[in-house]
Amino acid sequence: MKRLLPLATALALSPFAPAHAQLFGGDTEARNQIIQLRQDVQGQLETTSRGQLELAMQNEQLRAEVARLRGQIELLMNEVETLKQRQKDFYVDLDARLRQIETGGTAGAPAAAGAPAGAAPGSDPAAESAEYEGALNLLKNGKTKEALAAFDSFTRRYPAGNFTAGAHFWAGNAALQAKDVASATRHFKTVLDKWPSDNVAPDSMLGLANSQQAMGDASGARNTLKSLTERYPQSNAAQVARQRLAAR
């Protein structure tokens, strides 16, 4: 009887044997799935890390670009402020000249430095100043093409007048704004050739550099800026030229 007990026990447990094997087989599959999942997660983490690194590099490049653009903006703002001050000084000088013409006539009106003495024979100082001021008003009101035409007419009418150097300078500015670079170059060079000591000469040289840059002549523009700093070292235009040369 006792011998039959182990056999009975074995027979009783025999139905659970396949389940036991199935349990161990399922455990292996689960481990494989866990390993696969771990590999997938690791791959995703590596991909995310690379993405974050690339994003960090792009951010750094953007910061550098923003810093560069800020520097250029500051330079341009300085140039604008310098030009505004130069224009203000010029208008003050213009007002002084007009007052001298009104109070003293042609005899009391100083000719532009370096210009041929006096206006054209028989010219009317009041008409000359009115025509010049009219051209300036056109430019101040943003009518660049009309202003350019008015200044061209003025320089033909008064080739050696008290305001002719300034007329060529402002004609050059009007031409640049109207994208007539050839006319701008011609007017700026006229000032430098005929009135090199006039108070608009340094700004005319700066305008010439702008014209050369607009034509794609970067080398010529740089040489003109260098000449400007040597020829008119104390001028506001020379200060702008030095800033531009340092930024290149």
How would you characterize the overall build of this protein?
The chain has 248 residues and is mainly α. It has a domain of 162 residues: Serine Threonine Protein Phosphatase 5, Tetratricopeptide repeat (Alpha Horseshoe), CATH 1.25.40. The chain is built from 9 helices and no strands. Helix 7 runs antiparallel to helix 8.
Strand content: under 5%
Q: Find the structural class using helix and strand composition.
A: mainly alpha
Radius of gyration: 41 Å
Give the termini separation: 109 Å
Mean pLDDT across all amino acids: 77
What is the CATH homologous superfamily assignment of one domain?
Tetratricopeptide repeat domain
CATH topology of one domain: Serine Threonine Protein Phosphatase 5, Tetratricopeptide repeat
Number of strands: 0
Regarding quaternary structure, how should these chains be classified?
A: single chain
- Second rung of CATH, namely the architecture of one domain: Alpha Horseshoe
Question: What features would you highlight for this structure?
Answer:
248 residues; mainly alpha; Serine Threonine Protein Phosphatase 5, Tetratricopeptide repeat; 81% helix; elongated
Write the layout of secondary structure elements.
Elements: H1 4-13, H2 17-108, H3 125-140, H4 144-157, H5 164-177, H6 181-194, H7 201-214, H8 218-231, H9 236-247
Helix pairs in contact: 2-9, 3-4, 4-5, 5-6, 5-7, 6-7, 7-8, 7-9, 8-9
